[in-house]
Amino acid sequence: MTSMRRVLTIAHLTLDEAARRKVLLATVVCGLVFIALFGIGFYFIHRDLMRDALPMAQRRMMLTFFTMAGLYAVNFLMVMTAVLLPVDTLSGEIASGVMQTVASKPIRRGEIVLGKWLAHGLVLAGYLLLMAGGVLLVARAISGVTPPHVERGMPLMLLEGVVLMTLSVAGGARLSTITNGIAVLGLYGLAFVGSWTEQIGTLAGNETARYIGTTASLIMPSEALWQLAAWHMQPPIMRDLHLTPFSPASVPNAAMVAWAAGYVVVTLLVGLRAFSRRSL
Amino acid sequence: MTDLVVQTHGLRKQFRDKVAVAELSLAVRRGEVFGFLGPNGAGKTTSLKMLLGLIEPTAGSGTLLGAPLGDRPTRARVGFLPEHFRFHDWLPGRQLLRYHGRLHGLAGPRLEARIEALLERVDLHDAAERPLREYSKGMLQRVGLAQAMLNAPEVVFLDEPTSGLDPLGRLLVRDVIADLRRQGTTVFLNSHLLGEVEVTCDRVAFVKQGRVVREMSLAEHTGGLEVELVLGSAGPEVSEGLARFGHGLAARDGAVRLMVESEETLPEMARWLVERGIKIYRIGARRKSLETLFLEIMGDDQRPG
Predict the structure, then answer these.
(1) How far, CA to CA in Å, does A79 sit from each of A166, A223, A225, B100?
(2) Average pLDDT over chain A, rounded to whole?
(3) Burial (CB count within 10 angstroms: exposed 0-12, middle 13-18, buried 19+), residue A254
(4) Which one of B54, B95, B133, B157 makes the best mutation probe of the A interface by having the most chain A beta carbons within 10 Å?
(5) For A102, which of B85, B103, B144 is closest by C-beta distance?
(6) Nearest CA to A81 among A172, A174, A181, A8?
(7) Does A98 contact B84 at a Cβ distance shorter than 8 Å?
(8) How many residue pairs from chains A and B have C-beta atoms closer than 8 A?
(9) Interface of chain B against chain A, CB under 8 Å?
């Protein structure tokens, strides 16, 4: 039976490592710089829009669009963090021999993987909260605008990050650090291109393109989750009229969320199994 | 309680086409310091990892402290120092021991007291708050040794523990092993430093190409005596006569050398020479070293690893 105490010890060690290697500090500092830059840009955009005396609905739509642009940048940074932060957490410790000492203790291999997964999940959630929360707070403080259904969009963005982070952790159980990083980023690229293929195929009425895009989203559901999050966080008029690049023509449905959640569970189980059989 | 701490039958590990361990059959008794000897690439580390459950055997079976190899609860009674011990270099020594203690289920004042005692034992008390990146190779080995003893194990596996240590560091490791023996802890010492093994081990096994080719007790080590004689005259008839007392007779640098079974042969040999009027200027005998034995057992087909 899995011991939560041992899982938490590994999670603690992983978080301690992130803190002592200044990963958390770098993340927070870069995050604050990003938010500050976004705030400055948003402030000037808001000032110009107010000066131009646009109708309020139009102004709100434009401000929501800029907020979505900020969230899109956050999404990209979170994807990179989700892939790169844990990419060597298993493979690096296996290669350096650190894992031999840990795995020779009375701990299950699965508990090591779960501890690391939990710690990276917490870092990722904190990162998203800081970055997306910062963008939303800045937008609200300057303009009073908050995108709708943030409570639906944010969990979907987090799920997207968790999908990639889980793949990165699980891949390290079998692959070398560099191979793992390339493989996970490659899958993300596949999902990104696939999703746009699907959107364009939908707008053009090309079923084959739609089918290719959907298949890519099943292989890697990350971009579909962002599309769904973006769809939720826009006013109906913006998304229905496809007024921004963040308004998907083909909206992923709830089944895709269930697929992504299952994807996380299965990937984690495959990683646990691979690591349990790995020679250390 | 079984008297055997380690027992294996035909343990084998094959990585694709490469056989790392061909057939390991071994028995280590409780409380002994057991030396596992072999040249580089003989499969020592792979064997040790199989015993610890770090590598799954391709074939064969075995027990560690009476439980099947890889049994998780049993690892709470086992200590392990890997070869070239490494851990996160940002961790201070004391914190490293804390983490490993927690993985053993230790906590609170009991763990802290244990850490204090072990830091003192491996002479790292002053460096306990420094990160490992500031440790020398010897200090890393010593903190690794401390983590291997955190749980007061019944058996400790040490993989080349003195590799890279200076003479003082080696002495410390030797003392620690002697302490463990006094406490009744079984020590499984993986090494190719034969001098170290000779002074610390009770029993040794020689492993060659993944097989144990010989097991022996060092206390009963009667591998023979090398006798060196400096004689007044040593013609062919003397050489022929001396040959019946032993084997490997050779004349070199004005001395005659041969291997004999025991000290009892020496008076007989001296009497035989005196009866024939041959002057004896010097007669000396020394036990065959473990190194000589190692080279004999490994044969000429071994190349430096």
Answers:
(1) 12, 10, 12, 33
(2) 91
(3) exposed
(4) B54
(5) B103
(6) A181
(7) no
(8) 70
(9) 15, 49, 52-56, 72-76, 78, 80, 82, 84-88, 90-91, 95, 99-100, 102-105, 144, 147
Tens of pLDDT, residues B247-272: 888 887 778 888 888 788 888 988 99
Interface TM-score (ipTM) > 0.90: no
| pLDDT at residue A2 in the model | 65
Residues in B closer than 8 angstroms to A9, CB to CB, are: 99, 102-103
Separation CA B102–CA A32 (nearest Å): 35
CA-wise closest residue to B36 among B200, B193, B191, B218: B191
Q: How far apart, in whole angstroms, are the C-alpha atoms of residue A156 and residue B17?
A: 47
d(CA A129, CA A137): 11
pLDDT exceeds 60 at position B304:
no
Cβ of B72 within 8 Å of Cβ of A107? The answer is yes
- Inter-chain touch B73–A106, beta carbons under 8 Å: yes
What is the predicted pLDDT for the residue at A183?
96
Read off the pTM: 0.84
Greater model confidence, A280 or B261? A280
- Assign residue B67 a region: left if phi > 0, alpha if psi is -120 to 50, beta otherwise? beta
Q: Phi and psi (nearest 5°) for B275? A: -60, -30
Contact at CB, A9 and B99, closer than 8 angstroms: yes
SS3 call for A246: coil
Q: Please name the member of B54, B82, B90 whose beta carbon is closest to the beta carbon of A17.
A: B90
Looking at residues A151-165, what average pLDDT do you find? 96
